[in-house]
Specification:
- The protein is an alpha+beta fold.
- The protein has a single domain, classed as Glutaredoxin, CATH 3.40.30.10.
- It contains three helices and four strands; from the N terminus they run βαβαββα.
- The chain has a four-stranded mixed sheet, covered by helices on one side.
- Strand 3 and strand 4 form a beta hairpin.
- 18% of the residues are buried.
Length: 82
C-alpha cells in the first residue's frame, strides 16, 4: 500500500497523520511519502491538485484521495487498515 501525505509545517493534524503513517510503515508495511509545503510544492500547486479551500493535510492511498486527517483515519479504520 502506498500512502502520500501533503502537509505543512506546524500543523497538528499533519503531525497526527504522520504518526499514523509511522505506525502503518512499521506494522503494516506501507510505503509512505510525505510532501511538505514550500519544500515539495507551492500553495498554488496544492490548490490545483486538491481544490481551493482544501485544508492540510491531504492524504492519498494508492491513488485514491482520502481527504484530510479525520476522513483518512476513518477510512483506514473502516477498511481494517488501522
Amino acid at each position: 500500500m502506498n500512502l502520500e501525505i501533503y502537509s505543512k509545517p506546524d500543523c497538528p493534524y499533519c503531525d497526527r497523520m504522520k504518526k499514523v503513517a509511522e505506525y502503518l510503515t512499521s506494522e503494516k508495511a506501507f510505503s509512505v511519502k510525505v510532501y511538505t509545503l514550500k519544500e515539495n510544492f507551492t500553495k498554488e500547486e496544492f490548490y490545483d491538485k486538491f481544490g481551493v479551500g482544501s485544508t492540510f493535510p491531504q492524504v492519498i492511498l494508492n491513488e485514491k484521495h482520502l481527504g484530510g486527517c479525520i476522513d483518512s483515519i476513518n477510512y483506514l479504520q473502516e477498511n481494517n487498515l488501522l
